[in-house]
């Protein structure tokens, strides 16, 4: 018996060699698909929770929210209707970018036997911290990121982004 077979049997996971690793185009497509789905689902979550339950903003405020976070509330107001288009572009640009990032990370964690949803929970926290640290550098017009409600709400919304992302990437890269 080979040592790879023994290791796979002993730990209940298959080995993944470079020969059967997914190619770059497959990983990019999986990340874009998962990122797009996650970007839509996070907006559904925000519509239900932030708008419907918590009344934090109007439904129409969701697409332009990213404009205010990146450039400040004053720029968001000054842009008028253009803030909706810019905010939507920012939102989906980062949703797609983080999706491709996850698709490139996923094979590493899959080889080590981790479940995609577990990785997604940690990925959500990491991307929330990175994105909001960048927002704090970009503008002073942002929510209080030391407020526990803002942190918990941010993590929750990002879970609704990363879990569907991870499941789609996992499924799309299953044979790769």
Summary?
The protein is mainly α and 176 residues long.
Overview of this protein structure:
By secondary structure, the protein is mainly alpha-helical. It has one domain (22-172). It is built from 7 helices and no strands. It has helices at 3-11, 24-53, 61-71, 73-79, 82-111, 116-138, 148-172. It is elongated and about 50 Å long.
Backbone shape: elongated
Beta-strand residue fraction: under 5%
> What is the SS-derived class?
mainly alpha
Number of beta-strand segments? 0
Mind telling me the C-alpha Rg?
19 Å
Q: Helical element count?
A: 7
Mean pLDDT: 87
Number of domains: 1
| SSE arrangement, N to C | HHHHHHH
Q: Note the gap between the termini.
A: 25 Å
Sheet having the most strands: none
Q: Provide the low-confidence segments as ranges.
A: 1-12
Helix fraction bin? over 70%
What key attributes describe this structure?
single chain; 0% strand; 176 residues; mainly alpha
Question: Topology of this structure?
Answer:
Layout: H1 3-11, H2 24-53, H3 61-71, H4 73-79, H5 82-111, H6 116-138, H7 148-172
Helix pairs in contact: 2-5, 2-7, 3-4, 3-5, 5-6, 5-7, 6-7
């Amino acid at each position: 018996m080979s040592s790879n077979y023994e290791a796979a049997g002993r730990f209940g996971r298959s080995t993944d060699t470079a020969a059967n690793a997914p190619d770059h185009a497959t990983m990019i497509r999986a990340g874009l698909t998962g990122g797009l789905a996650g970007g839509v689902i996070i907006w559904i979550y925000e519509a239900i929770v932030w708008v419907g339950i918590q009344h934090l903003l109007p439904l129409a405020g969701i697409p332009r929210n990213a404009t205010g976070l990146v450039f400040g509330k004053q720029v968001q107001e000054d842009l008028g209707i253009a803030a909706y288009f810019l905010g939507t572009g920012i939102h989906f640009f980062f949703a797609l970018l983080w999706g491709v990032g996850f698709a490139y990370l996923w094979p590493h964690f899959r080889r080590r036997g981790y479940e995609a949803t577990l990785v997604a929970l940690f990925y959500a926290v990491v991307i929330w911290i990175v994105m909001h640290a960048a927002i704090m550098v970009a503008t002073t017009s942002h929510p209080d990121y030391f407020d526990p409600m803002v942190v918990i709400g941010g993590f929750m919304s990002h879970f609704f982004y990363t879990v569907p992302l991870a499941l789609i990437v996992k499924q799309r890269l299953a044979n790769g």
